[in-house]
Amino acid sequence: MSSRDLEARHLETLDRDLGRVSHLELATAYVARPMVGPGISAVFVVLAGLAAALVLGETPHTAIVILAAGFGAYMALNIGANDVANNMGPAVGANALTMGGAILIAAVFESAGALLAGGDVVSTIAKGIIAPTSMQDAQTFVWAMMAALLSSALWVNLATWIGAPVSTTHSVVGGVMGVGIAAAGVSAVDWATMGTIAASWVVSPILGGAVAAGFLWFIKSNIIYQPDKIAAARRWVPVLVGIMAGTFAAYLALKGLKHVVKISLGSAIGIGGAIGLLTWLTMIPVIRRQSEGLENRNKSLKLLFGIPLVVSAALLSFAHGANDVANAVGPLAAIVHASQTGSFTDAINIPAWVMIIGAFGISFGLFLFGPKLIRMVGSQITKLNPMRAFCVALSAAITVIVASWLGLPVSSTHIAVGGVFGVGFFREWDTERRLRRARVAIPDRPPLAPEERRRRKLVRRSHFLTIVAAWVITVPAAATLSAIVFLGMRLMIG
Q1: Could you give the maximum distance between any two Cα atoms of the chain, in Å?
Q2: What separation, in Å, do the N-terminal and C-terminal C-alpha atoms of the chain show?
């Protein structure tokens, strides 16, 4: 055998060996992929505990605060995985944003909202759900808040795993209620407050769905079903964008920036009206330029709603970061305050380092686990396009403003998902209405078979039932879990 043949055989053997190694590397990467997210999450939780230790230094209560910081980081990760999907899901489902773009925008604006406009003053035991005097001492209070924080995070984690967007605020409320009952009995709970929270389960999605359906009806009637769609869009899209800008200005003034400057509801509406009018006038020439040369069809209309939809998703994320994050890390702030001062009956300000844990945890949770719920909200409940997704985003802001005016406690999660349901059910109703008109115009046309009618349903009933069931049981499930965790902790510490 010549030297050339030997060299060729060696190269062939080397190629086979390298092929085996590359296959092994691919197989290892495939097997290890599901562990990347939990691994990074575990590192973040540990780093949060170390950060708490560095901030506090050597104190008698450092170990408890380190443990609480880990629980708070775990809760923040779950907020990012579950709650943020409500803001970004419609934009992704409508193809106005890619998944990567949505995650980047949400991470930036959620963190900005939490750090710049967050830091809410949290009442001692999660907004008066249980009476402060029902707690025996500061140590009991600390372990109660610890159990509430851990149990609410576990419940949101479970909901994310089964694909159900739930309210993290309601999870915290349920956790606090459960430990209150376990620590001091049923009489410790303010049942009037719990009644208003339970009412929001119904009020939030119905209001959100009705407002979103109303705007979709307006867009269909005044733009989509018009003979000259482009001319109608030039008339009405600037108006709709102006309404969006004004609503979000009022929303951010009232809710997102309330920690920077106090603004009354009337002043917020006045600010929103002025910005809405200015935006409407500005958008008239912009939409005219964008619509030049567009064909007279629905696909052209999607281009005109794309940028407003992306802006609305970013603003929703900012307002969410400013509000819901504070509620979620509130128990951690309460633990820090009670550990350092021994008092648990005063109002509690959230320290900056606690808000940083919340902001970074949301970003990591969204990046690692958020796509599942974003797809659920954006495309698996009903099919969305930019016009429908725009109606959902606008509905979320308007419903919060109306609910604040009426004094109703509402959930941003329930409003956004209710808006998606409202859009889907309106499309079903509108399709049925048009079919009935077609049958009247063509009497000989055969009716659809029951199987075909079920197939044409535009809202997936299985997802609808799963989500509604998760909403209903969130507070009692988190309460039960927190009571069990609290009793277990009390047994462990004697």
Answers
A1: 95
A2: 82
- Contacts for 194-202: CB closer than 8 Å, 24+ residues apart: 194/129, 194/475, 196/408, 196/409, 197/170, 197/173, 197/409, 197/475, 198/475, 199/408, 199/409, 200/408, 200/409, 200/410, 200/411, 200/414, 201/170, 201/411, 201/414, 201/471, 201/472
Residues 6+ apart with CB under 8 A from 346: 124, 337
Q: Which residues of 339-350 are buried (b: 16+ CB within 10 A; e: fewer)?
A: beeeebeeebeb
DSSP 272-307: HHHHHHHHHHHHHHHHHHHTTT--SSHHHHHHHHHH
CA angle centred on 73, ends 71 and 74, rounded to 5°: 60
Return all residues near 108 (Cβ < 8 A) that are at least 6 apart: none
- Rounded CA-CA distance 126/124 in Å is 6
Residue 256 DSSP class: I
Whole-number Å distance between alpha carbons of 372 and 267: 39
Two structure tokens written together for 252: 């951010």
The token pair that represents 216 in the structure block = 């979709």
Q: Report residue 60 CA to chain centroid gap.
A: 37
Place of tokens 């309330």: 258
Q: CB of 251 within 8 A of CB of 400?
A: yes
Closest listed residue to residue 415, CA positions, set 431, 400, 437? 400
Round to whole Å and give the CA distance between 100 and 362: 15
Measured CA angle at 330 (ends 260, 55), to 5 deg: 85
Could you tell me the sign of the dihedral formed by the alpha carbons of 184, 185, 187, 193, in that order?
positive
Answer whether 352's CB lies under 8 Å from 197's CB.
Answer: no
Which amino acid, one-letter code, is at 373? L
pLDDT in tens, 384-433: 888 888 898 888 888 877 776 766 667 777 888 888 889 988 988 888 88
Could you tell me how many residues make up the chain?
494
Residues 6+ apart with CB under 8 A from 289: none
CA dist 71 and 331 (Å) reads 10
Q: Output the six-digit token pair for 346.
A: 């005063």
Whole-prediction pTM value? 0.80
18, two tokens = 């390298």
In this predicted model, what pLDDT tens digit does every residue of 79-133 receive, in sequence order? 888 877 777 888 888 888 888 888 888 888 888 877 776 665 555 445 567 766 6
Helix (H) or strand (E) holding 315: helix 298-341
The neighbouring-strand residues paired with 348 are 122
Q: Where are the domains of the chain?
A: 37-492
